[in-house]
Amino acid sequence: MSAATRPSKLFKNLNAKIASIPMILTALCVFVGGTTWTVVYSFTDSKLLPRLRFVGIEQYERLWASQRWIVSIENLAIYGILSLVFSLVIGFLLAALLDQKIRFEDTFRTIFLYPFALSFIVTGLVWQWILNPQFGVQGIVRGLGWESFSFDPLYNADIVIYGIMIAGLWQGTGLVMCLMLAGLRGIDEDIWKAARVDGIPMWKTYLFIVIPMMRPVFITTLVIIASGIVKLYDLVVAQTGGGPGNASEVPAKYVYEFMFRAQNLGQGFAASTMMLLTVAIIVVPWAYLEFGRRR
After folding, report:
1. What distance, in Å, lies between the first and last C-alpha atoms of the chain?
2. In what helix (H) or strand (E) does residue 164 lie, and over which residues does it extend?
3. How far apart, in Å, are the Cα atoms of 48 and each of 57, 265, 268?
């Protein structure tokens, strides 16, 4: 590129670049500034109010010595891995079915997407009633004569996180379906025709041709799902409040409890920093592999 060409590209769309300056400055102050502030104060002994009295890594030592924090990390890992797998699989299967130009497609699409319009609090309360052993699924089945039937995941410490995951899947799978359906509708019809002419079974067409072509859609969906997993809070509060005991504790709830109820800002900041670090460890290598090797 010549030196004369560079300035012309630099001043291209100048009005748009100038207009974006306030947004860029706001993002830097709010996100970068807030993140830096949180990390710095995680090394202090801040209680009710933040104070710059540094204690080194004491807050992090207390954090990782806390069984409550360990349980929250384990729960988030279980919820995250299973949610990613089931959301992608179920969402893609639903999208593939709707892509067959079935009757009442608009109605089915609306039904599947409708739960996403509800807040997590409403979803959590609805599924708290559905999974209630007295008048939920267990109560209904026992009322039909199966007295030995047991289904109370929200009241069983060993499987409570799976009960929360059911509600999360019910709400979020519809959005995944719509994203996948949009990706499927973007596949050229000639590809389907060529696959049929060559006698390739439909499942092989999806597995070896369509899914690789939908890689950008899968990446976008993965980012959306992952962002919802990391900030998991509302469903837990609405369904179990973190119980039984601390069996359904998650990192976001741990941060909230220590920052606003236990009045221990230093511990809350340390937990927030660890959440940020976890996301960075996952996202930064992925972003580099995805975009860093390209121009």
Report:
1. 15
2. helix 160-185
3. 19, 6, 11
Task: Provide CB contacts within 8 A for 111, sequence distance 6+.
Answer: none
Task: Supply the pTM of this predicted model.
Answer: 0.86
Which helix (H) or strand (E) segment holds residue 280: the answer is helix 265-287
**Which stretches in the chain have pLDDT values below 70?**
1-11, 289-295
Give the model's pLDDT for residue 290: 67
Q: How many residues does the chain have?
A: 295
Burial 51-74 (b: 16+ CB within 10 A, else e): eeeeeeeebbeebeebeebebbbe
Q: CB under 8 Å to 218, separation ≥6 — which residues?
A: 88, 183, 211
CA distance 199 to 221: 31
**Residues forming a β-bridge with 44:** 54
Who contacts 121 (Cβ-Cβ below 8 Å, separation ≥6)?
Answer: 234, 237, 238
Residue 204's SS3 state is helix
Count other Cβ atoms within 10 Å, centred on residue 44: 20
Amino acid at 253: K
pLDDT at 294: 55
| pLDDT in the model for residue 73 | 94
Single-letter amino acid code for the residue at 190: D
Contact 177, 94 (CB under 8 A): yes
Asked if residues 176 and 221 have their Cβ atoms less than 8 Å apart, the reply is yes
**Contact call for residues 266 and 41 (beta carbons, < 8 A):** yes
**Tokens representing residue 146 in the block:** 């199966």
Alpha carbons 283 and 219: distance in angstroms, whole number: 12
pLDDT at 44: 94
Beta bridge partners of residue 54, listed in sequence order: 44
Instruction: For the chain, list the domains and their CATH numbers.
Output: 58-292 (1.10.3720.10)
Q: Are 188 and 182 in contact (CB under 8 A)?
A: no
Q: Which of 153, 108, 161 is nearest to 132 (CA)?
A: 153
Residue carrying structure tokens 């979803």:
123
